[in-house]
Structures are given as C-alpha cells and as structure tokens.
Amino acid sequence: MQYPIHIVRWWRPWLLLFGVTQQNTFAEVEKKSLRLRFGLAQYEVDVGDVESVGTYHWPSWAGVGWLPNLAGSIALIGSPGKVVEIRLRERKRLGTLGIPCVRLLVSVDEPNQFAEMLGGLIAKPARARSRSPRNDLGGKKPTTPSRSRPSRRGSGKKAA
Length: 160
What we know:
Layout: E1 2-4, H1 12-16, E2 25-30, E3 33-38, E4 41-46, E5 50-58, E6 65-68, E7 73-77, E8 81-94, E9 99-106, H2 111-121
Parallel strand pairs: 7-9
Antiparallel strand pairs: 1-2, 2-3, 3-4, 5-8, 6-7, 8-9
C-alpha cells in the first residue's frame, strides 16, 4: 500500500530543486519491505528490521527536505507537524550513499493510519516467562526470611 508524503505548497519550488515532486515522494509497504522515496533519495527496509513505529512532532524550525544526521536519523520531511517515526532494531546502512541509520522520520499524509498499519506488521518479540510462579503471590516477588544481624550502619554500638 502506498502513502504519499505530505508536501506543503510553499515548499514545493524549493524541493523541486532536489527532484521532489508529488509523483516521486511516498512511503510504500509491500509484503515484507518498506520502501521510502523522496525525490532522488530512496530507501528500502525489511519490515522485520523495524523495532517500533509511532508518531512524532516535527517542529517547523527544523526545516523540510532530505535531512540525514550523524546521530543515525534520516528525515524525509515535506511539511512540519505530525510525522511517523520508524525505529530499527539495529543500525543499518541505507540508500546509495550507505548512510548509517537507526531511525527514520517521514511526513506522510495520514500519519496515524500509516503508523497503525506498519505497527501491525512488525513482529513483536516473545516475552520470556518467569521461572517462579507469581500468580499465587499476587504479583509480588518471594521474600527470604530476614536474619537477625546487627546493622552495619553507624558505629556498630547499640543504642541504650
């Protein structure tokens, strides 16, 4: 399924310099891969490599465009506001330049719908079961009996 990246009208001439048009800016999910395209920038990620998906507020002062950084984030932003944040399980090299990335930010037209759809596709890690049964303890950990030892706090003298 393909979701167009939202581009604010007054940024279109500026983004056109980087090859960004409405026809070649989208986020697409096919079977087990996520494909992101923003003009000349193209990225493809396996859905199994996605750890979490959520929404994020992109401030207007942060700008628009193709915005990689040294912290491992790549932002494909056509408009400030609510964007989709995609976190990867581990750092991967993406695109033709091989930019190391652990987090993708995309400003799609319908961020909530895209985040829910992609979040439903990612595999949730199985939770390990506890070895000790906690149901009979009401969720509390078993305690060990206390020993009657003098406290090591203070000078070691007993108060009278």
